[in-house]
Structure to design on (177 residues):
């Protein structure tokens, strides 16, 4: 088990909400249609499903998916089902993935993101008969690369040691003198 993939301290609910909010805001930005933009919210939900299983419920993932369905104008419940599935499978793979480095985890999660892409294709095909173009395969790679960057960033933030506050340092100096 590598120390880089283990969280040194439990994340606060505020930090988790901040990262989920950042992912939601990044998804809501008006990106150019020519760019292959990863699904930031899905990546962050998978991260918390792996590194803090049980802290984010399936209902929260479902509600976030409904927000994305409304934003994208897609069939209500399409993204909700995908986000809830990603969170569930991410939590289910937590023990298996904890023994791998970040690139090793990414190799496993590429299959999970491919499953989400397949679900997107099937749900879109069953709801309105249309099929997305082949760029959805590129989005699997974009999600995987984004997951690696997000994991390194968030693990780096969570593994920082808490610095003693100046008040505690000053009070220690007074008590020892």
């Amino acid at each position: 088990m590598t120390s880089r993939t283990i969280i040194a301290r439990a994340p606060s609910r505020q930090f988790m909400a901040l990262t989920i909010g950042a992912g939601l805001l990044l998804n809501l930005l008006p990106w150019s249609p020519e760019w292959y933009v990863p699904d930031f919210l899905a990546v962050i939900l998978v991260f918390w499903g792996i590194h803090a299983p049980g802290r984010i419920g399936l209902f929260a993932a479902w509600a976030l998916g409904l927000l994305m369905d409304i934003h994208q104008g897609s069939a209500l419940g399409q993204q909700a089902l995908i986000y809830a599935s990603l969170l569930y499978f991410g939590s289910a793979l937590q023990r298996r993935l904890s023994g791998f480095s970040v690139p090793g985890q990414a190799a496993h999660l590429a299959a999970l993101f491919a499953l989400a892409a397949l679900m997107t294709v099937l749900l879109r095909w069953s709801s309105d008969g249309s099929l997305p173009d082949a760029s959805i395969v590129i989005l699997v790679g974009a999600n995987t690369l984004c997951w690696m960057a997000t994991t390194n960033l968030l693990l780096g933030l969570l593994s920082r040691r808490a610095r003693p506050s100046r008040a505690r340092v000053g009070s220690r100096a007074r008590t020892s003198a």
User: Anything to note?
Assistant: The CA atoms of residues 48 and 98 lie 13 Å apart. The chain has eight helices and no strands.
